[in-house]
Every structure is written in structure tokens, then in C-alpha cells.
Amino acid sequence: MSDPYAILFVDDEDRVLAGLRRLLRPMRHEWDMHFSLSGSEALEYLAANPVDVVVSDVRMPGMDGIQLLDEVRSRYPDLIRIILSGHSDQVATLRATGVAHQYLAKPCDPTVLQSAIDRSAALRRDLGDEAVAAAIGGTKSLPPAPKVYDQLTAELAKEEPSLNVVADIVATDPALAAKVLQLVNSAFFALRREVTSVPQAVALLGMKTVVGLTLTVGLFDTPQPSPEIATILAEIRERSMDAANVAKGIALAEGGSPADADAAFLAGILHDCGKLVMSVNWPDDFVRVETAGSTVEAEQACYGLDHARAGGYLLGVWGLPDEIVEAVAYHHTPGRAHDKQFGVMASLHVALAMMDRVKGGDAFRLDEAFIDQLGKSDRIPAWVEVVETHEYKKANR
């Protein structure tokens, strides 16, 4: 049996901490829970004790929760950081997206809180390597394309910017799409279901919040990439957009709903976000591995994990929907996933494999055993046709 997860709760009100103790009493055998009344007290505890997850309120005297979690990110970047707040402060929520992995609203359903903590802590331990977890966990944002930033800024500067145009711009960039989905799926918005569509997410957030997210929160605070990295990232984004469109087409070809197709599109946009993580944390190694013809094996040897696992971990602790996280984490190895239906993950895996096949490559191979298990081996010609149709439309734009 594995050790219980160590959770540190921080709130300046003793009655709130007492309420958490009562609320979470059923978890006492699975969680090793500790409680601090201030940011400074929490930092003292962290300096002397191992912890998996820090859960903090926002408004506290002296050091507020966002300042605390920013300090935790700096000192202990491998720890999971969660905001638990009853204040519906949009500015604070936007600030929190830069330092907190997830934002939960008070009063919080115990099952929601338990799920957020268990899922994040399990992902952290499953990653295994603390140094790798620290690098990824400390990733505040990912590098967006300069062209996307310019397009978005130009649209937002118009007298009557279009929400549809903003959604189209966001949907083309993995970094921006991931951050928008992280925010809209946070408990701050109290939505009844998870959002896996970028246009829907942008519509729910509204123009004001999108402006705040892109220009205030610090999404673009990552260091300016070198020309070599910028060129590689541009290629990754172009391939991600192709994968998104093909995955959407595959999902529809297999009878998926419009919502399934939107989720497959998002998974395609985000499937290589782990490479963006690597470009931020290991820039020199990233250039070397990518220019040599990146493979999963080369990534494992260099970083200790591959881009699929890195992306899945980051999106998981950011609180994105499970079907997106699983699709990103297992797009090379679908047989390892829990999902054994033809869903988002299968649509993405097939899209990537068929794209490679049509172009005459063999770097991304179809997991034929997985496809046979789904009873879909006879569908390969139809999937190839989806790719060829996309390539034809792309060439004739």
C-alpha cells in the first residue's frame, strides 16, 4: 500500500480550517492532512516536512494565497498548488492561473475537492522523477506563437472585436488553448459540465476575461524563444492544427457527436504541448533532440520522459477534462489507456498514424492490436480518405 498523500491546507480563519477537518474526516486514512493559519506558517511547515499538495485560500492578511503559492512554486516547484476560495474575484482568479494548478470555489463539494487532490497527487507520484515533476510543475505558461499574439492583439484593439475571430485565433495555438481551457474548467465558473470546445470556452469566458487572460495574467511571460526554437515550435503548431482537423474528421466518420468532434479537435491542438514544456525547461536539449529527428526513445533518454507523458501530466494538474488528458498522454500508446472505446484518444491516435502513412513516413505507427481490439481494422481506408481530403483542402486554400 502506498503512503497517504500529504496535504497542507492554508486559511487565516480557524473556523474554516476546523470545517475542513470535519468535512474531510472520511479521508483521514488516505490523506495525511495538516493545517496552517498563515502563509508564513505554511512555509515554515513546508521547510521541515514533505508535502504533495498545498491548498490555500486567496485573501489572507500579510501574505495572500497567490503570493504564498508563487513562493511555493519558486521553492518547491514539484508540489501541486490549488486555490480554494469563496471570493468571486475575477482579477484574483486571473492572477491565480499563473501560480495555481487549479482553482476551486467555496463552498466546495467534498467529492470535487477529493477528486482534484487525488487526481493531481496521483499524477505527480506516477511521474516518479521529482526533478522532472519540479520542471513541469513549475511551468507557469507555455510559449505562444508570436503571430498568434499579434493577431489577437490586433483583433482586441478593434472598436468592436469579434468573439468568433478571437475563438478562431485561440484555437490555432496549443499554449493559448490550454490556458483558456484551464481557466474555464476551474470551479470559479461553477459550470455543470466540463468544456472541451475552444469556441465554447471563449464564449463562456467573454471578451473581458480573454483580454485579461492574454494580456494581464502573464501567459506571454515565458522567455522569448531562440530563432531555432521558434522555427521548431512553428512546425509543431502547424502539425497540431493538421492533427486537430483530421482527428475531428475521424471522430465524425466514426459516428461521434459534434461534442466528440470538438473534443477530438482540442486533443489534436494540445497533443504535442509536452514539447512546448520541454522547450521552456530544457531549451538546448530540445533543439538538439528535435533537429536530430525527435523520437519517443530519444526524449526518454534525454529528459527522462517523453512529450506525451509530459503534456498529459501538465494538463492533468491544470485540471483539464480527463478525456483530453488521456488522449494527450497516450496518443502514442493507446493500448495503455483506461479508455477502450473509440473516443477522443482513438480519434487522435488514428489521425496521427494516418497522417504519417499518407505522407509515406513510419515515425508514428498505428497500434494495430488496439484498433483490432476495437473491431475497427476495416476502417483504415476510410481514415486514409479523411487525411487525403484534408490535405487536398489545405493545398487548395
Q: Which strand order spans the largest sheet, edge to edge or round the barrel? A: 2-1-3-4-5
Domains, number = 2
Task: Indicate the structural class.
Answer: alpha/beta
Strand portion: 5-15%
CATH class of the largest domain: Mainly Alpha
Q: Mean of the pLDDT scores?
A: 83
- Largest β sheet strand count, sense and barrel closure: 5 strands, parallel
CATH fold field value of the largest domain: Hypothetical protein af1432
Q: How far is it from the N-terminal to the C-terminal residue, by CA?
A: 57 Å
Helix fraction bin:
55-70%
What is the helix/strand order? EHEHEHEHEHHHHHHHHHHHHHHHH
What sort of overall outline do the alpha carbons produce when their principal axes are compared? globular
Radius of gyration: 21 Å
List the helices and strands and how they pair.
Blueprint: E1 5-10, H1 14-23, E2 31-36, H2 39-48, E3 53-56, H3 65-75, E4 80-85, H4 90-96, E5 102-105, H5 110-127, H6 130-137, H7 146-156, H8 163-171, H9 174-184, H10 198-215, H11 227-253, H12 258-270, H13 273-281, H14 283-291, H15 296-303, H16 307-317, H17 322-329, H18 344-358, H19 368-373, H20 380-395
Parallel strand pairs: 1-2, 1-3, 3-4, 4-5
Helix pairs in contact: 2-3, 5-16, 7-8, 8-10, 9-10, 11-12, 11-18, 11-20, 12-17, 12-18, 13-14, 13-16, 16-17, 17-18, 18-20
